[in-house]
Amino acid sequence: MSSIIRVNMTTHEIKSEINKDYEFLGGRSLSSRIVYDEVEPTCEPLGRKNKLVIAMGLLSGTIASSASRISIGAKSPLTNGIKETNCGGVAGGKLSKCGVQAIIIEGKSEDDKCYVLVITKDGYKLEVMNKLKYLGNYDTVENLYNKYGRKTGILCVGPTGERGLRGACIASSDSIGELKFAARGGLGAVMGSKGLKAIVVDDKGCNLITYKDKEKFIELAKDYNKKLASDPKVTGTYHNYGTTAIVKAVNGMGALPTCNFRYGSTEHVSDLSGEKMNELILSRGGEGKLALSCMEICAIRCSTIYPDKDGKKLVSTMQYENIALLGSNLGMKNLDQVAQLNYEINNLGLDTIETGCALGVALDMGYGRFGCIEDCMALINEISRNTPLGRLIGNGALLTGQILGCDRIPTGKGQGFAGYDPRALKGNGVTYSMSTMGGDHTAGNCFGSRATVDPLGTESQGELSRTLQIQIGTLDCIGLCMFARGPLFADASILANIVNYRSGSSFDKDTIWELGIETLKLEREFNIKAGVSPAHDKLPEYLYEEPLSPTNAVFDLTEEEMLKAIV
Amino acid sequence: MSSIIRVNMTTHEIKSEINKDYEFLGGRSLSSRIVYDEVEPTCEPLGRKNKLVIAMGLLSGTIASSASRISIGAKSPLTNGIKETNCGGVAGGKLSKCGVQAIIIEGKSEDDKCYVLVITKDGYKLEVMNKLKYLGNYDTVENLYNKYGRKTGILCVGPTGERGLRGACIASSDSIGELKFAARGGLGAVMGSKGLKAIVVDDKGCNLITYKDKEKFIELAKDYNKKLASDPKVTGTYHNYGTTAIVKAVNGMGALPTCNFRYGSTEHVSDLSGEKMNELILSRGGEGKLALSCMEICAIRCSTIYPDKDGKKLVSTMQYENIALLGSNLGMKNLDQVAQLNYEINNLGLDTIETGCALGVALDMGYGRFGCIEDCMALINEISRNTPLGRLIGNGALLTGQILGCDRIPTGKGQGFAGYDPRALKGNGVTYSMSTMGGDHTAGNCFGSRATVDPLGTESQGELSRTLQIQIGTLDCIGLCMFARGPLFADASILANIVNYRSGSSFDKDTIWELGIETLKLEREFNIKAGVSPAHDKLPEYLYEEPLSPTNAVFDLTEEEMLKAIV
């Protein structure tokens, strides 16, 4: 059984332990469970009592495709409830190969040094690297590569995480040194508050992954990988557009956040679309690339490198949420503008969704003009310079709006909405409101369910959200990418058996979902103890009152309907 | 029976109504009851669904001394729970004489005009006075006096209330045009959010106060007035020092907030003391004055005018809380500095306690130097100029600390602590934490109870806080000043009978406290529905960990002890 590494940042001591109770847990089921077991629900999120938990998935480091996502949990400084945020990159697989089931970062360094946790086949140690202090994510990774080699996996925070800004995220390097982000909930601020700048993992010489039945596992994993690789969604959509394929569809539904969620569609949709991204990457060439994997084994390959006119890299990865929140939501007209904002926000170590929402609010209050890239870059420069206005925006949409006096703040449970206006995609409104995660894009995203539930209707939205919370939550608990769900949901016995063959559990196609259900229940219990729910299960008032063009929809679900979403 | 004036700021309609259910309610018992009955607990505090309720006391406008305080209630934008804040000034008595039991301000003006509610013997109307827009409190009152006469009573908000800053208060004019403040909880922002700049009341030709038994009332009121006027606390303390008499005592206990609650005493105590204030007012002469009344009938006369070296008025009224929060808490060295800050903050329409806490946090984070009046004036200038940093500070200590990254934020339930460090006066820690009001100075202030409960001890603090919450809460419900409590608590039958003779109720010396108890229970119920309690009943973590010099006390009460304070 793999072990848990416990790092006390107050004493700078590290120890390793094994917990039999956690034997069959991984990903979100493990990170949320440890937070539930160890973190005082009413503690200060950026204080020494909070803990940052990094948990590997149940299939992490194996040959199963898209299964090495890393799950990071803590009490969130944005929602004041529990938060789980997961991402790709190579650290998850490498940590699993090093025999690490989870890392618990606790306490808080009392000195002003910049710490890096280094994990190799020889063990683990905290090193001081003060030259990384307040360095942007890209330079941080470059410095760490120079010291520890380019085959390491890195998790790190940018200057905003070090400065405790609630919009901060945790970056995760991929195999070519590009970054993925455990973006939501401000967990970068939690990591930064502890004095930990980065975690470096070198799996050279390690392969400590164990199997209940390796032969059956490999057979089933190969079968699943093959099914996934031939899924038309994967080959047709993700390889060509990554996650940006849906821009036109969301715009067509009237749910694309535009100018601080004032409109549901933009006239610039063509120039912001996935089709345009694909066209530009192919026509501009150079460093531009489509269909990259973010982790060692992944058939989905939704990562991209978006180049400028001269073929020089602008940003990786251009994603749907970035186009929605940094593009249309800020009134931007083209993908070059989105890429420019995206790169800077990545480098500062902020969540693009939260920061896009916060920038939208700031523009709405007159701190710049919608559609003006210079004004937005000036606001981002305020964040770099750590000015009061910069700290405001870096702390997310809710605090930005409260301080600047905005009465249109697009947040759920204190967290900025993802790229779907809840008035025109009501199921997502339910998820933003009722899920344990707040305004999230993965916690139960109802986009794509139009065939079964009318996105503008008032019926079945609660049930839809609940079902998706459980389904995607279960994938989170295993450490699987949600884009791998095609073959797994088509035959859930694959999902159950692949987990069983790896870890010795005894799930079947019906009981595998209990992983998600149990985790969501624990999370909700934590939130209630933390004082977050149910009085905080409420969307902003303007959504109930202000019709959203072009559908003129308002958010009009009954409380009864909303309550159906509780797991 | 007097009537309730309901002002809809959305439609600009006003109507008058009578509610038999409220017949025996007044002050806090009425304002909190109306908020409980009419305000959706989860509504946005600065949105159209919140209501601002202004309620007259049960003895308001009569000859009973110190009994015409006005009670203002709403859902607070600072605590997100119910807030009652009361103050002196002449508006309360005058509104009672005009037959007004309460005013309910609801809705939200959708235009950008500056409205004034005018109440006279001829009725009530909303007038537009755009020249008052963003005017400071002192100029606002002067403008209103010029239009409506100097014998009117005025309630108004400064520019910070109009701008929705959560530290904003409501000013109330006294008989010489000086200002008292319904200071706590950010209710100035609620009034400002509705588009209402001021309420002017002219009671000329009105005396609509009714009595159950006028003769008995007058006889008992005269007896009470006489007792109060000869109370040594009144003649010895309030006439000479106002509320500033306790500076040395709190400093001696080690509970005087000093440099953002980092220390419990200051070396500058003599120059910040009530004795010094008395000496300076007497020696400087000129416009300086002691022992002024803030309302028509008041034997306590705790108001003062503090003059500069040339005898020119600097501020009225210099109070203990201002000396604590704007003086020692900011490292100030003398009363002239306190007076200068106090005047500017009054004029901007902010609560001096909340703003003193916010400024302390800002200085602690390096946005100025403790003890440097120029630095503090520069921060206040940021508020005047409505800059992001100014909006931050004007929004109170919690948001200031959260944005600037401070882990020492002196707040309870989101509201800045009053001038007593809870580590060295633990009963106040209980009140800041457990009362419905948060970090308040009147909701159950345990200063002065040293004879019965050791302020540093861990015993009996919950019970002490509870008793004081009920006692002072009951005075709030009647509209009586807490400094009048000497003769009233010595013989509570006076308290009961004077209310009975006025309104026809049938309280006795034991049951009169039910007014407070019932109100506190309603308030707590509102808070729980609003999602505020009990997970939010927690003081900041640093108080439990950082010893406070000179006593080296930490806050160390058990949860069991704290829970005893719940009414």
TrEMBL record, chains A, B:
<dbReference type="InterPro" id="IPR001203">
    <property type="entry name" value="OxRdtase_Ald_Fedxn_C"/>
</dbReference>
<keyword id="KW-0004">4Fe-4S</keyword>
<dbReference type="GO" id="GO:0009055">
    <property type="term" value="F:electron transfer activity"/>
</dbReference>
<dbReference type="Pfam" id="PF01314">
    <property type="entry name" value="AFOR_C"/>
</dbReference>
<keyword id="KW-0479">Metal-binding</keyword>
<protein>
    <submittedName>
        <fullName>Aldehyde ferredoxin oxidoreductase</fullName>
    </submittedName>
</protein>
<keyword id="KW-0411">Iron-sulfur</keyword>
<dbReference type="GO" id="GO:0016625">
    <property type="term" value="F:oxidoreductase activity, acting on the aldehyde or oxo group of donors, iron-sulfur protein as acceptor"/>
</dbReference>
<dbReference type="InterPro" id="IPR051919">
    <property type="entry name" value="W-dependent_AOR"/>
</dbReference>
<keyword id="KW-0560">Oxidoreductase</keyword>
<dbReference type="Pfam" id="PF02730">
    <property type="entry name" value="AFOR_N"/>
</dbReference>
<dbReference type="InterPro" id="IPR013985">
    <property type="entry name" value="Ald_Fedxn_OxRdtase_dom3"/>
</dbReference>
<dbReference type="InterPro" id="IPR036503">
    <property type="entry name" value="Ald_Fedxn_OxRdtase_N_sf"/>
</dbReference>
<dbReference type="InterPro" id="IPR013984">
    <property type="entry name" value="Ald_Fedxn_OxRdtase_dom2"/>
</dbReference>
<dbReference type="InterPro" id="IPR036021">
    <property type="entry name" value="Tungsten_al_ferr_oxy-like_C"/>
</dbReference>
<keyword id="KW-0408">Iron</keyword>
<dbReference type="GO" id="GO:0051539">
    <property type="term" value="F:4 iron, 4 sulfur cluster binding"/>
</dbReference>
<feature type="domain" description="Aldehyde ferredoxin oxidoreductase N-terminal">
    <location>
        <begin position="1"/>
        <end position="205"/>
    </location>
</feature>
<comment type="similarity">
    <text>Belongs to the AOR/FOR family.</text>
</comment>
<dbReference type="GO" id="GO:0046872">
    <property type="term" value="F:metal ion binding"/>
</dbReference>
<dbReference type="InterPro" id="IPR013983">
    <property type="entry name" value="Ald_Fedxn_OxRdtase_N"/>
</dbReference>
